[in-house]
Amino acid sequence: MAVSKVFFSTPPLLGHNESYFPPIQSMGHAGTLLAGPATMILVLGLQMLKKQLTSTHKSELYQHIWKFISKAEARDKTGRIVQYFCRFLQGFLGHMSETFWLQAWKPVIAEVQTTLAWARRTHRWGKELPHIPVLGQAIESGDILEAAQRAILITFLVQDHIYWLLKVGILKFQNYTAIQWHRRNLRFITLSHVLNFSLCVREISRIRAKQQDPKIAGDKEALKKADAAVYDNLRMMVRYSLTFIQMLHVSQVKKMDDWYIGLMGVASSYIDASKQW
Question: Using an 8 Å Cβ cutoff, are 177 and 230 in contact?
């Protein structure tokens, strides 16, 4: 067996398409190679301009954005916004003519939607863990509604992991294809949304009852916090209503149209993401 006298398998600096400085084949090739460095120079220029205007390189906005995207839940819900926007686009394109300019991008849109869905599902492993202690506490205290919601949610998450295992081929079921298992499992999260909606109604009722307490009625700060809690629960009720309808469609319990289901998904995901901001 001949031994190569050259240390590098491919030239690191020049002369290869994967080198730092590859031979330029065309203007388009040059533009492709310059995209990364040009973006870096652009953001550097903006940063230096910021320094001139504010006398500091520190950016509260960058720090806030980084803090946001450092949260797993924030990344998940942001990805879900894009995922459901892709669903909206696919539904919208289904009503457009074949000559509509965006039709050429339909396979790309579908690929983005699917890729995001699987990325989110992959990162969902372990998401059931925080709910297990709450389930135990709810059962111990006799809170049937809370216990039912947590039990169904945990079941959904475990079965979602099984779907992942089915999809990658680690598991195989005789009576279910991966997609059949997935659609059946979506019925669990659909019910979970109904129970979550009920929990919000119960919480609002409890808050309103406390507001009638003379001790709280005269406390402006306590009333303000109570009103904020009611508002938050009302937002979540809207969210659960939207996701309930979405899951009916995605599970194919009731087929609707992707364009408005997609918009519902964007809205419900925005509500979730905004809580992380």
Answer: no
Instruction: Give the pLDDT score at 147.
Output: 98
Across the range 134-145, mean pLDDT stands at 98
C-beta separation of 245 from 189 below 8 A: no
**pLDDT, position 261:** 98
* Residue 207 burial by Cβ neighbours in a 10 Å radius (0-12, 13-18, 19+): middle
Report the b/e string of 69-107 with b at 16+ CB within 10 A.
eeeeebbbbbbbbebbbbbbbbbbbeeeeeeeeeeeeee
For residues 139 and 155, state if they share a domain. Answer: yes
Looking at the predicted structure, is the pLDDT value of residue 166 above 70? yes
Structure tokens at 211: 């507001």
HSE, side-chain direction, 13 A CA sphere, residue 221: 0
Range of the domain at 162: 65-276
pLDDT digits (tens, 9 = 90+) for 216-229: 777 788 888 999 99
Residue 48 has pLDDT above 70, yes or no: yes
Alpha carbon distance 227, 208 (integer Å): 9
4 conformational bin, left if phi > 0, alpha if psi -120 to 50, beta if neither:
beta
Q: Where are the alpha helices (DSSP H) in the chain?
A: 27-54, 60-69, 72-93, 106-122, 131-141, 144-168, 178-211, 214-217, 220-250, 258-276
In percent, the amount of the chain with pLDDT more than 70 equals 98
252 Rama class: left (phi>0) / alpha (psi -120 to 50) / beta: left
Q: What is the pTM of this model?
A: 0.90
Whether residues 156 and 174 fall in one domain: yes
For the chain, the domain total comes to 2
Asked whether 166 and 210 are in contact (CB, 8 A), the reply is no
- SS3 call for 124: coil
